[in-house]
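Q: Is it fine to ask for two folds in a single conversation?
A: Yes, each is treated on its own. Send the first.
Q: Here.
A: Result:
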Amino acid sequence: MKLLRLHSNTTDGNFSTTFREDIVIQPKAEIALSNCSFTSEDQKFTINSTNNIIQFQLTATEGLLQIELPFQTVDNDNLEEFFQTITKLMNDELLFSGKRIGGQFRVAIGDKDFNRVEDEGVVNFVYQRALFYDGLNFDDADNGTNKSIEILHFVNALKIDDPNFDNNYIRRFNSTGNDTINLNQNFISSRVPLCSGAGTFRFGLDTLIYNNDGLNEGFETDNNGVALCLLNKNPAQDPNFDISNVVLGIYAGRAGSPYRTIVNGVETSHAGFNVNIPIPNNTDNDVLEIRRSEGKYFLKVSRKNGATHNFGTHTIFTDNTELYPVVIFKGDGTNAKIMNLRLTVDPYRIKFYEIRDINYVIQGYQGNDIFRNEEGDLPETYTLNQLPNTGTNPITYNPNTFRLNTSFKLIFGSVGLSEYLGFEGIRIFDFNGSCAIFKGFEPFSTIRLLNNYVVELLNIEIESFDSLHEGRRNLLKVIPVPNVNNSTVNYEASNLVFLNVRNAFPKTLRNIKARILDDNLQPVNTTENSVITILIK
């Protein structure tokens, strides 16, 4: 019997030991693994100029969009940040236009929070759309009492329905409290953040009456008007906010006075562009909007005559902070009213609605929704009372209806990046209509959470077979992992299992080659100082 101790200083799990004298393996010899000791290392992937491109297509007519990943080495320590970077870069390419409106990407390792994704552990590139939400737009079909699916949170505020004005359905909102200088006394907020792809938050002015109380004009100092804001906190959970929480905002204080903007808690007056005197129930009034497009936020006021005033472009979404839409009423319910509230919210946080022709279809997905009834499910039928001349035509829950007839593409800039993320090939397609889910082909992990390792001989043929390759492989031993969270393996065979060597004649070697593989027979990154011991008899 011969004992061969193989040592490796490499980091790829390979052994190549050259002895000073011949090792003769006789015919009908048998070989076994006695022990092994090694430490596996997290997978690392280097992003450089040869592999940092990812392209994607949302519609054939709009063509390919492209992102460039920053150069870095990706490992377990910065993995979450890596996926957040991909997500942000892809969302920053979404232009607020046409079929991209309301669209948002999310890239991460799949889990239950990914809608319609059943594969655990694979990387998912998910694209979903949430179209305009126009302020509690469905009524309960059973009793017609305006029982709402609430995406909005009301504090001293309410909605007023007026379906008879000018043959259009106007929905107005105002406070129910007194006029105030406090920002958090009368408001309406979204329970979920604004879409971080191509999204918008806007409303039209309906009534703006100056109460002539003599207070100084200003967002913090006046008790008149109304403001459109994005906050860095969720007022539905914590209503104690002030101007420091306002990331972006537009304030219409008094008709005839300048509009004011708020950026990161700092208020600015815009002389020369004043608030138009609004006419109640008139769709020609000023429309205030915060729009997200191509990674930037645009503050603007639009008018019926085509005049649009932009208050600047802001790139503030750099730390993945969720921004919550809020309407702040400074004036009381008589002096300050808005109408036709519109917003697109994060589609991964809600059950969302899509327009198909003139009917509404509820896109039903599993996930982090807030719209379940007492039984935990969505009601199946609602009465549509939002568009003119539709009466009480019912809409039916249909999770398989899609609005767009298009294909999506995801193209990796290199095979290496594709394989690292667990995909097969560099061009991936999805045909799910308005939403796309690109799923990895195999589970991804920088930490090798394995059930076992495999020792393979590279220049000694043995009687060993593997079903993954449907044939013979020189697999010497399968090594169980006692603790999948422990990267260090110290294995000692309790029972030696000898396998037949395939040689009809004596075989003379000085160099013995072997390697350690994972349970998918893929290479394993190891630290230096790995050892395996082989017995031959």
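Q: Second one now.
A: Result:
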Amino acid sequence: MSAPTFPGPSSSSPDGGLRAGEVDAVAASRGLAPADLEVRLRADASSRRAVLTLFAVAIAWLLIGSIFGEIASFKLHWPDLLVRQGWLTFGRVRTAHLHAVNYGWATAALIGTSLWLMPRLVHTELKGVFMAIVGASLFTLGIAIGIIAVLAGYSDGMEWLEAPRYAAGPFLVLGGGLIGLSLFRTVAARTNDHLYVSVWYILGAFIWFPMLYIVGKWPTYNGVESAAANWFFAHNVLGFWLTAMSVGAAYYFIPKVLGRPVYSYQLSVVGFWSLAMFYSLNGMHHLVGGPMPEWMITTSIVASVFMFIPVIATGINLHMTVVGRFGALRYSPTLRFIVIGALCYTAVSLQGSFTALREVNRVTHFTHWTVAHSHVGGYGFVSFIAFGAIYYIVPRLVGHEWPSASLIRWHFNLVLGGIAIYVLALTWAGVAQGLALLDPQLPFQVSVQRTIAGLYGRSLGGLIMTLGHFVFAYHFWIMVRMPQLSRRNRPPFHDAQPILYTAEAEAARVGERVPSPGAAPVPAMRRADATDASSAQQPLQTPLEGGAT
């Protein structure tokens, strides 16, 4: 893949593409101090190349993972499909799908988001940009080696950890370490004292993940020990890696787009530290009924129930921040994706706590319910947060608006409709399957037959989501590859028109482009409608704790 092209800061405009006079004018039009706007522009300019590279890699993995996922799904109801090629057997393509979407797409997209957020949140430029790009390249190489090895039949045999430790592991460890070092150097060079809640989650993710990977890949485990270490990693990589970065992003973008502070600082503290305290013990509930010590399983179940604390605290905090401003979802793709992602975080976490209970687990365990549950978290939560973040960040890095409102709408409607069909079909099929398995009067074949309709629904939902992914990838491609002539014919980013038009938004835009010094302020909702219609412009200065920008 060729490197994406985009306008970068020139020697005459080291602050991200605006001259000194333009910085003052734009800052005045938004009610900002020129120094604050300059900090943001310099932060964005410093992370531009690393972030766009990671986003491009992430979207490539999203397409690859979607294709592997559809092949695996088709095989569940068309078992004779592609049976002559060993590398296309279900066990291999399903694992390739898992690695491509979780470590390729989700991880790369959220790392890119973190690299963009951190300089803004700590009021400095990204340190070690070249180090971060090299780290991203090594991490991508490690993922590719792992997937190729799995398709060739080489695997460590542990779910979420199938990539051979001695082939892919060194690249993943070194690449991730270089990216983490760049982030920690950036935080060490910060110019503000207080760390906003998003910084806690991002730093926590980069502290927790290395520990999880070392425990999961340690080569001396045998038998039951291996199963326990496997699910310690597999469950916590979602909670302490993907969830941590996703919640950190949600805490930034929701208040930012709405132009209002987060609802409660105290709830953000409770949510973060209770997540750190309880989530690490949850993984053993995947082994209910297995040959594990009873105290270990019971401890995991209790910890899973205690997850109500961070989930409810975070859910209330994010949702109350949106209360009264739900109308903004009509105009901001970022807000639509991230609010739905936050709702899915609450839903999947509460669902997981109930599923951990033995009475529920005996029905849902070893069924398609688990697949539906994991996709509410991995896709409805994590991927929607990543989509929303990319829609907000990319225009600020390339200097112009997204080219097409219709492509944004197609992407949103396809992925939302696809995941809804997918989850509903497999949830129904999983419950029917579990009840059939528990009935001693029914032969095993009945439990299989009851899932067929749900498996067709799974494939249909997956196809719709995959179509949405290709729409998204095409839109991203034309966004970053837009010819220079087309860019010159478009308004500068800081003066770009909204691309989702309404009569009210258009009237507000015309009246507010350069407000006169004595003009009466426009109501906040109209201003947000006018300037964040595509989430590519900032509606208001957001008074976040810690001076987040």
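Q: Anything structural to flag on that second result?
A: Two points. The radius of gyration is 24 Å. Confidence is low (pLDDT under 50) at residues 1-16, 491-549.
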